[in-house]
Amino acid sequence: MPDPLLLDDLLLSRTAIDRAAHRRADSDWQEVRRGDGETRVLWLAEGATGVTEAEGGVRLVFSSATDLPLGTDISFLGVDALDRAYFSAHLQDRSAAPIRADWKSLREVGRALSDIDAGLLVTAVALDNWRSATRCCAKCGGELTPRNAGWSLHCVVDEADHFPRTEPAVIVLVRDGQDRALLGRHINWPPGLVSTFAGFVEAGESAEAAVRRELTEETGVVIDDHLDAVQYLGSQPWPFPASLMLGYHAWASDTTIKVDETEIAEADWYSREELRAACAAGELKLPSAISISRRLIERWYGEELPADWSW
Ligand SMILES: [Zn+2]
């Protein structure tokens, strides 16, 4: 029976920042804020950012905006509840950042951050990955220059504007008539690691159609025709490099497994008792707490999964 409540507290969906998008084109306002000692700058380089250990977790390390080196490539992230402005700075080489910190990736520290730090870092990483992957105009190959406080790139040749890409992907936990869950192992994963099934939404396709197509392509299992057999449960940005994961539960009509062997090496149906026994024995490992896959499994399982069942 579908549970209509959406997943709450997805770790990378947390945020406590007002993006204040109307300020992106306001260069006067930005100049004032860049001269304000309260304004904070988050530094990104080589897929990592500066962090420090703090009581109960990890904190991002910011610099002031008043001593930004000339020509630093920055993006405006938003303002907090105290109206303090935040920018991200994008570097090739972390040694140029004016901070003293440990450098860690979002994957490493995402779950240990506060809501405000998590929201800031996810957005900054998404922008950083987009900028790294967008070196010239996709229409004419011309040179691009940042606009709108880092939220668009403008072609100096044909005046085309380019915006950060977000690529929708679906991820689904499928259940059968005995309320078992279908889990599988990607061909690139070592034996014992299993997860739910995921894939990109294709051009011209709805998310629900993508859920049905991906599942059957990868496992042979067919989802029931009824509309309610595919239930949306929430979304989480996954900026590695540019995905938005749309999470679902779905109910199968044909449970016969025939894996494609190009993406999925093996798949199986698990009752809660079978999953508990296999994980407790160390025979199976499940995705980490930062992933929406973990939360989809927990929703089915009925409670939070023990941390030592993770990859
Ligand atoms: Zn162009």
User: Poorly predicted ranges (pLDDT <50, ≥5 residues)?
Assistant: none
Shape: globular
Topology, number of strands: 17
CA-CA gap between termini = 30 Å
Oligomer: single chain
CATH superfamily of the largest domain: Nucleoside Triphosphate Pyrophosphohydrolase
Ligand names? zinc ion
The class by helix and strand makeup works out as: alpha+beta
Number of helices: 6
**Structural domain tally:** 3
CATH topology of the largest domain: Nucleoside Triphosphate Pyrophosphohydrolase
Average residue-wise pLDDT: 96
State the share of residues found in helices, binned by percent.
Answer: 10-25%
User: What amount of the residues lies in strands?
Assistant: 25-35%
> CATH first level of the largest domain: which class?
Alpha Beta
Sheet of most strands: 7 strands, mixed
State Rg.
22 Å
Task: Tell me the CATH architecture of the largest domain.
Answer: Alpha-Beta Complex
Write down the secondary-structure element order.
Answer: HEEEEEEEHHEEEEEEHEEEEHH
Write structural notes for this entry.
- This protein is of the alpha+beta class and 311 residues long.
- The protein is built from 6 helices and 17 strands.
- The protein has 3 domains: 21-133, Alpha-Beta Complex (Nucleoside Triphosphate Pyrophosphohydrolase); 136-164, no CATH class; 167-301, Nucleoside Triphosphate Pyrophosphohydrolase (Alpha-Beta Complex), CATH 3.90.79.
- It has helices at 27-34, 106-109, 115-133, 207-219, 272-280, 292-301, and strands spanning 40-45, 48-54, 57-60, 62-64, 73-79, 85-91, 102-104, 144-147, 152-155, 161-162, 167-175, 181-186, 197-200, 222-223, 230-238, 243-254, 264-270.
- A hairpin with a 5-residue loop joins strand 9 (152-155) and strand 10 (161-162).
- The longest helix is centred in the middle third of the chain and has 19 residues, at 115-133.
- The chain is globular, with a radius of gyration of 22 Å.
- The model has no long low-confidence stretch (mean pLDDT 96).
- The site of zinc ion (ZN) has 8 residues, from loops.
